[in-house]
Design a protein that fits this description.
Helix content is 35%, strand content 23%. It is an alpha/beta fold. It has 2 domains: 89 residues, no CATH class; 145 residues, P-loop containing nucleotide triphosphate hydrolases (Rossmann fold), CATH 3.40.50.300. About 13% of the residues have low confidence.
């Protein structure tokens, strides 16, 4: 009959020796002994315990008979091995010569703090939104792009420019406005940035897309504008799926920093913009907050 295997754990080999006889009887055979060290640092302040594995043949029971000679010999050999391991571990546990002013002492104490400090309490899961962008960039020479369908981008970009007091408005793509300069290539962008640095103003560009969403011309404009910050201007009244489609297309070729919302007061479901998974940093007629 195949034996049943049990595992016992204790603080000493003598304790385990007695438990084998008491709990499993004279026919039990110890087949493995392990010294287990837990906690501490570099072997210091650790707790050492012993684990043994015992095979007990089926149909046997504990009785008062002593171990037979082969069993006692086998157990003695295993325990001797464990004693040797323990002695080796103890000999390696000699404290190093560490001065309290040495770098090794600082390392040792940091390790002690890490390994002996109680675990931190479980913290509640944070449910607050990520920190909101306080405002569009407006330092001299900064270039902020507001991307939107049709004139949506212009509505937001104009508000941002007026609210900043330190940024000038530019247009690109489908957006146009009397008296507002247009950026149509990389050279014009570099010239605008240089003027911003010289005259101490930032630049906010309204980039209008076709109503169908991002096309090749819009993608090219994002490429040559190379904005320091990119906002998407979305109409809260449009179908979330349609908005999500063109915003995802923009995000695929340019990092999107935040969402600016228009038309929030004209819809019964203004919060659908949150489905975009992007931070809402501006609402028409004022910054969020």
């Amino acid at each position: 009959m195949s034996p049943n295997r049990f595992q016992l754990e204790g603080t000493s080999l003598d304790e385990l020796n007695a438990r084998v006889l008491q709990e499993h009887g004279p026919h039990a055979q110890v087949v493995a002994v392990r010294a287990v060290t837990t906690g501490g640092i570099q072997g210091f302040f650790a707790q050492r315990r012993f684990q043994i594995e015992v095979d007990v043949p089926d149909g046997t029971a504990r009785d008062v008979h002593a171990f037979d000679l082969p069993t006692r010999a086998g157990l003695a050999a295993l325990l001797d091995d464990a004693d040797s391991v323990e002695a080796h571990i103890r000999s390696a546990d000699t404290l190093p010569d560490v001065s309290t002013s040495s770098e090794n002492f600082d390392t040792l104490m940091a390790d002690l703090t890490l390994n002996t400090a109680p675990p931190p309490p479980d913290l509640p899961i944070a449910t607050a939104r990520a920190p909101r962008l306080q405002a569009p960039l407006s330092a001299p020479g900064d270039l902020v792009i507001v991307v939107g369908l049709g004139s949506d981008a212009l509505t937001i970009a104009r508000e941002m420019s007026l609210a900043s007091g330190a940024s000038e408005l530019r247009v690109a793509g489908e957006c146009s406005s009397d008296g507002v300069k247009r950026l149509s290539d990389r050279r014009g962008v570099l010239a605008a940035r240089a003027q911003g640095v010289r005259d101490q103003f930032g630049i906010i560009v309204a980039l209008g897309l076709q109503r169908v969403g991002l096309d090749e011309a819009g993608a090219d404009a994002l490429e040559f504008l190379q904005g320091d910050q990119v906002w998407v201007a979305v109409d809260a009244g449009r179908k979330p799926a349609d908005t999500g489609r063109w915003v995802a297309a923009v995000a695929a070729i340019s990092h999107v920093d935040a969402v600016a919302v228009i038309g929030r007061g004209a819809t019964s479901s203004p919060n659908t913009v949150n489905e975009l998974g992007l931070q809402v940093g501006w609402v028409e007629s004022g910054s969020v907050g």
